[in-house]
């Protein structure tokens, strides 16, 4: 997934607001806008998996850039990085990975960054998430998201991802047309990970299901962890990161409530 930064418009007013904060505000004079811009630094994050890249892009908004290292369609499992990947990460400010065992190449990269004392912050998005036991994930999702597959494909859950309608082609998934009756992003996350589900389970010790992002409440926890990572690298945009993360968590709460109402 190429650069997915600057998608603040995906989340409506909050994303636009963060862009204004990092750029000095849309109603200010050119002088004041330029002064504000020079006081803040555009940071860059690299994510190991498209879901983590999406989460990071929402937190980044217009205040930072979030990219996904794995090409579109490769998903991440079984994909091996080329020789230039470590250099790409070393040139960034933040590396966003999933959890130990989810992507072995990402584990190796984190170990290398730490051994070299690299000036790159590392965030493990699943570190604070209580993972479900393998097998329980499907049962849990059937229970809590009962009609998830059916309703999302019909467009009934599209409120959570209204950003795809508003972003004007800025997002990497611009060709998916989720809101014209095709699959929504949440369903895309689910469908794209289904083919890798069993392989990922074998990668993780303890028999847990790593696909926490299928549960909006667990996804909220991951967003909070990513927010901490962006706050650590700062650049003067901490308020923007906080506002963007709050907005996205609110969307996830709405999605969870929508699931619960259909039980």
TrEMBL record:
Biased composition (Gly residues) is annotated at 11-28
Q: Which family does it belong to?
A: Belongs to the bacterial solute-binding protein 9 family.
Q: Which GO terms describe its molecular function?
A: metal ion binding
What name goes with this protein? Metal ion ABC transporter periplasmic protein
Residue ranges under compositional bias (Low complexity)?
Answer: 29-39
One of its Pfam families is ZnuA
- Renumbered to this chain, region (Disordered) spans 11-40, 137-210
Q: Which GO terms describe its biological process?
A: metal ion transport
